[in-house]
Each structure stands twice: as structure tokens, then as C-alpha cells.
């Protein structure tokens, strides 16, 4: 059966006006992950990423670490993260969530989680994407990434925590709010492995960071 590797992007610029860029640590995390994949002698039938900069650059970093100069990165916007600013504004009536992040980190996350729950429960108005629409486009993107993969093929998908939370919740048929926990605990450049059968998918492993669980790399175990 084909195996799908779903990777969360590297550390981005949390608390900055432009979150969508990798930090130096984020780039290193991606390259280390690529080196780990090379150690496992993995090759990918297809590499797919959303069109956000942090997703594209993570995919590039992974391929650099693998010394893979041939594999193209297929872009699929269905793998883009939800619009957190949209969610935050609809719930609080305020903009510039990065200022809240800087002012009071803990209060920001309490507020954002409540906004996330309200979005899942279809309680927000004036939004550009519902929770159901988000899940549908994530499912379509993953199906597209795996299209045509053979039994022995591996597919790499680079995306974001919210996408992973939605995908895994659907995979394990869990409660919808469980997607929040999948999302918030997923580490930067952590990956999960999914067995892709013709009629079923099975979660094989979750939130793996063997490339960071090594001497001298503890600083690179991040979540943002």
C-alpha cells in the first residue's frame, strides 16, 4: 500500500505581522527532516505543498536535506492553513491578532481556542470559509496528492497544523473539536504516516520528530 507522509511546516514568525515565513530554526528543522528521510532511503513519488511561503520553503528545505535536486514541488492551495485572522476578527470584532500575541501570549491562546471552537460549531458570521468547507478542500487536496500512487510509493505532503488536525479527525472519525488538540500539539516539521489503501486509510504514526530528538537539537523542538 502507498504511504503518505504529512509534514507540518517549520517554525514560522509567530507574533510578527508577517507570520508566513520560516525562522532560521524553521529552515534547519526542514533540512534535518530531509536528512532523516535520506537516512531511511526514502524517495517520494510526489511532493505536494500548499502555496503559503512557510509550506513551500519547508518542502524546499526537506528536499535540500535529501540532496534531491530533481523532484518538483507540486502546489495545491487546498493544503493552505485556515485564515486565523478571519476567525479571530469574527470572534472578537478586533484585528491585528499579532499585537494580542505580543501583549499577552496566554490570553491570546485562550481567546483563539474559543474562536476555533466557535468556528467548528458554526457560530461565527461574516467569514470567508466554514469549517465544513475547510474540511472538504483538505480532503480533496490529500486525495489529489495521492492520485496515481502505487503500492510501494511514498507521497510527501507539506502543510500546516490546522490542515493536519482536520485530516486526522476525519481519518479517526473523532469528534470535530478534537481537531484543535491534533493541531495545537503538532510540532514543527513533525510528521505522521498514513497507509493509503484503495478503500481505506490507516494512521500508522503521529507527530514524529526523530530528526529533532538528537543531541544538540532540543532547541529545535517547537510548536509555532
Automatic annotation (TrEMBL):
Cited InterPro entries: His_Pase_superF_clade-1 (IPR013078), His_PPase_superfam (IPR029033), PGM_Phosphatase (IPR050275)
One Pfam entry name: His_Phos_1
SMART domains assigned: PGAM
One of the record's GO molecular function terms: phosphatase activity
Active site: 9 (tele-phosphohistidine intermediate), 81 (proton donor/acceptor)
Protein name as it appears in the record: Histidine phosphatase family protein
Coiled-coil stretches: none
Gene Ontology, cellular component aspect: cytoplasm
Organism whose genome encodes this protein: Marinobacter adhaerens
Matching Gene3D superfamilies: Phosphoglycerate mutase-like (3.40.50.1240)
Binding positions (substrate): 54, 81-88
Amino acid at each position: 500500500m502507498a504511504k503518505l507522509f504529512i509534514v507540518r511546516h517549520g517554525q514560522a514568525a509567530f507574533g510578527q505581522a508577517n507570520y508566513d515565513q520560516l525562522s532560521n530554526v524553521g529552515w534547519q528543522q526542514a533540512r534535518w527532516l530531509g536528512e532523516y528521510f535520506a537516512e531511511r532511503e526514502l524517495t517520494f513519488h510526489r511532493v505536494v505543498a500548499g502555496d503559503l511561503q512557510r509550506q513551500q520553503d519547508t518542502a524546499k528545505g526537506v528536499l535540500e536535506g535529501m540532496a534531491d535536486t530533481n523532484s518538483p514541488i507540486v502546489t495545491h492551495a487546498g493544503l493552505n492553513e485556515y485564515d486565523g485572522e478571519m476567525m479571530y476578527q469574527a470572534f472578537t470584532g478586533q484585528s491585528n491578532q499579532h499585537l494580542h500575541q505580543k501583549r499577552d501570549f496566554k490570553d491570546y491562546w485562550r481567546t483563539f481556542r474559543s474562536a476555533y471552537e466557535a468556528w467548528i460549531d458554526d457560530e461565527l458570521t461574516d467569514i470567508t470559509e466554514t469549517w465544513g468547507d475547510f474540511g472538504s478542500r483538505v480532503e480533496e487536496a490529500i486525495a489529489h496528492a495521492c492520485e496515481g500512487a502505487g503500492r510501494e510509493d511514498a507521497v510527501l505532503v507539506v502543510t500546516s497544523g490546522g490542515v493536519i488536525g482536520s485530516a486526522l479527525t476525519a481519518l479517526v472519525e473523532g469528534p470535530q473539536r478534537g481537531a484543535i488538540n491534533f493541531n495545537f500539539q503538532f510540532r514543527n516539521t513533525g510528521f505522521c504516516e498514513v497507509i493509503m489503501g484503495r478503500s481505506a486509510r490507516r494512521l500508522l504514526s503521529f507527530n514524529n520528530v526523530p530528526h529533532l530528538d538528537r543531541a544538540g537539537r532540543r532547541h529545535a523542538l517547537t510548536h509555532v
